[in-house]
Design brief:
Blueprint (H helix, E strand, L loop, with lengths): L1 H28 L11 H29 L5 H28 L2 E2 L3 E2 L23 H19 L9 H24 L3 H5 L7 H19 L15 H20 L7 H29 L4 H15 L8 H25 L7 H19 L18 H31 L6 H6 L1 H6 L6
Antiparallel strand pairs: 1-2
């Protein structure tokens, strides 16, 4: 199996190398980066700062959040997954991913390779993708979303996937699941043409990762000793630190999608904070009533589900609706995670219950509470005289869940056939840190 893995990783390296060479050729033909009088320096600064905030969400934010939740023998292996996905997807996005999502259209399903290697993507603004910021600024902001989404999925198979399989899975998933779905909603594809609203990634990021996580949990199966061995988080202070970085970065994640330093960005930041705080308190109360004691892990989980739930509507709903969305998501997420324990599928770090459920609640809430008074470029929901919007949002949820679940299942089966998905029982017992990387998180 090691020989096969090295063979395929060698092929992957050769493909990336060839693509880099081709990108060099394209870059020579790309337009220079002129200074345009249409560019607003404040808007550009905000989008660039937001890009950095989302980067902090991936690593160290998500890496530490997930790293503290696993057992000590898997902490480095788990952190490594988020970090390497950021590096891998960054190259994929520049070489062909950005063009597939946002380039010239191909029938509403996927775009072409006209912008491969960032050919034609320069310093002038694009009329649709941020008319007051350089096109490159929009590209790098979207890059962070493309990297964050598959990194979320790693929580579902934590402690049991081979590192070589992880690299190949992230490559294929980004190309064949994330890019088409992002195009359908954000790149002018068929769902956007129907009127789907997703401000910062309720369907593109959270539903896709949640549905993909469910497929991963089912295909890889349970960890050895699941239900019989002690598998509690090994370092909750580390997880709390990761949560704080996620909360900090989420202001850019949601606020940056206004693509300018304006009132919509401010409203998105306020809505994000209120939903996170409300969901954290809601989770605490529900757990207190159900189990008799509130826990730090519960409050942390609630905060993250609150941020996930407000993501699709942050720029479309008012502050009071954000509080209601956070409360609703906190209750539903808690119930689903408790239900998971009774059903017995092993979604290690509850990606389905937090991100999947948060994304679904948020997308449906947009169909109820969105208002053009908040964002004229958005739409009105059912409570503001447009019941059709709820139906569009529900159809978008269904399409995202179905596409991501089936597509992820197919990608997993392909990866398993090529290199094998799971570590051996002996490697799983030793832990990912030693078996996959020959190093320890703690001496």
């Amino acid at each position: 199996m090691i020989t096969v893995t090295r063979h395929w990783l060698g092929i992957l390296a050769a493909v990336v190398g060839a693509a880099l060479w081709a990108a060099g050729a394209w870059a020579q033909e790309a337009s220079p980066l002129p200074t345009s009088p249409r560019i607003d320096s404040g808007d550009t600064a905000w989008v660039l700062a937001s890009s950095a905030l989302v980067l902090a969400m991936i690593t160290p934010g998500l890496a530490l959040f997930y790293g503290g939740l696993v057992r000590s023998k898997n902490v480095l292996g788990t952190i490594m997954q988020s970090f390497i996905i950021l590096c891998l997807v960054s190259l994929i996005w520049v070489l062909w991913g950005y063009g597939l999502v946002f380039g010239p259209d191909r029938g509403g399903v996927i775009r072409g390779l006209d912008w491969a290697g960032l050919g034609g993507v320069g310093g002038d603004p694009h009329p649709h993708y941020g008319p007051t910021i350089p096109h490159l600024a929009f590209m790098v902001f979207q890059l962070m979303f493309a990297a964050f989404t598959p990194a979320l999925i790693t929580g579902a198979f934590a402690e049991r996937m081979r590192f070589g399989a992880l690299v190949l899975f992230a490559l294929l998933w980004s190309m064949f699941i994330y890019c088409p779905l992002a195009h359908w909603i954000w790149g002018g594809g068929w769902l956007r043409r129907l009127g789907a609203l997703d401000f910062a990634g309720g369907a593109v990021v959270h539903i896709s990762s949640g549905a993909g996580a469910l497929a991963c949990a089912l295909v890889l199966g349970r960890r050895r000793g699941y239900g019989t061995e002690y598998m509690a988080p090994h370092n909750l202070p580390l997880t709390l630190l990761g949560t704080g970085l996620l909360w900090f970065g989420w202001f850019g994640f949601n606020g940056g999608n206004a693509l300018g330093a304006n009132a919509i960005a401010v409203g998105a930041v306020v809505a994000t904070h209120l939903a996170a705080a409300t969901a954290a308190l809601t989770w605490m109360v529900v757990e207190w009533l159900h189990r008799g004691k509130p826990t730090l892990l519960g409050v942390i989980s609630g905060a993250v589900v609150g941020m996930a739930s407000i993501t699709p509507g942050a720029g479309f709903v008012g502050s009071m609706w954000a509080i209601l969305i956070g409360l609703t998501a906190g209750v539903f997420s808690y119930v689903v995670i408790v239900w998971k324990g009774k059903i017995g599928y092993d979604d290690t770090l509850d990606v389905v219950g937090i991100h999947g459920i948060g994304g679904i609640v948020g997308m449906l809430a947009v169909g109820l509470f969105a208002s053009k008074a908040i964002n004229p470029a958005g739409g009105d929901g059912l409570f503001f005289g447009n019941p059709a919007q709820f139906g569009i949002q529900a159809m978008t949820v269904f399409a995202a869940v179905l596409f991501s679940f089936i597509g992820t299942y197919m990608v997993l089966k392909l990866v398993d056939g090529l290199v094998g998905l799971r570590v051996s029982p002996e490697e799983e017992a030793v832990g990912l840190d030693l078996s996959q990387h020959n190093e320890r998180g703690y001496s």
